[in-house]
Amino acid sequence: MNRVGATQVPGIRLMRWVGVLAILAGLAIPDAGAETPEQVLAGARRTLAGVVDLRARFEQTSHLAASGLDTTAAGVVELSRGGLMRWVYRGDDPQEIISDGETLWFYQVRDRTVMRRTLAGLPAASRLALDLLGGFVGIEEQFELGSCGARCLELTPREPQPDLSRLQVELGDAGLVKAITSEDALGNRTRVEFSDVELDPGLKAERFRFTPPQDVQVLDMESPR
User: Fold this and answer.
1) How far apart are CA 47 and CA 74, in angstroms?
2) pLDDT tens readout for residues 115-147
3) Contacts with 132 (C-beta within 8 Å, 6 or more apart), sequence order
4) Cα(137)–Cα(196) distance, integer angstroms
5) What is the pLDDT of residues 68-97, one digit of tens each?
6) Residues 60-86, buried b or exposed e (16+ Cβ, 10 A)?
7) pTM of the prediction?
8) Looking at residue 66, which CATH number applies to its domain?
9) How many domains does the structure of the chain reveal?
10) CA angle 36, 62, 78 (to 5 degrees)
11) Helices (H), the chain
12) Is residue 225 part of a domain?
């Protein structure tokens, strides 16, 4: 299998945008054990009930089915209630994905390009994923719940989604998320492995505010309906 840098494959760079929206739905699900998917979801809601924000390290692998190419990236993700988030990709192709609760920004630092989308214009499944700390309200209406192993929860959209056909959430021995894999209808996959998850680190609201730097191109992205 070929492995290349993300800068060489624009399609994979865009998958970061798509993959993050899908992946957020599973970041804090607790130990599944022998529980049913419904029991796992109930436990997730209990776990998140008192959580205000969280921070974790991540390593992401994206697979582009058409070419068979893989790319990897790593960084830090921060989430807070109200649909606030900040994904910081480090390395030779730094990027940031930021939500202030109303607008989602995708900043490609090296290309000096910013893509902007309103949260209200996102598909329902993506809006649900962004509101992770809201306790997965309405998840049963948007996804069918299933099991993909003793410590694996599978979410399948009830309505066809071009960017998401399923999510698989793998749990570690301590009950924290070990990895999440999202897949779309074309077979493109994004796998994110988490480590050093920190609950309630006391994130400031300023962490989730974004103003495009001067001399960057800002593009408005029309949301799929």
Assistant:
1) 26
2) 999 887 776 656 655 565 665 667 788 889 898
3) 24, 25, 27, 28, 48, 79
4) 26
5) 999 999 999 998 988 898 999 998 889 999
6) bbbbbeeeebbbebbbebbbbeebbbb
7) 0.76
8) 2.50.20.10
9) 1
10) 70
11) 10-23, 37-48, 124-130, 139-142
12) no
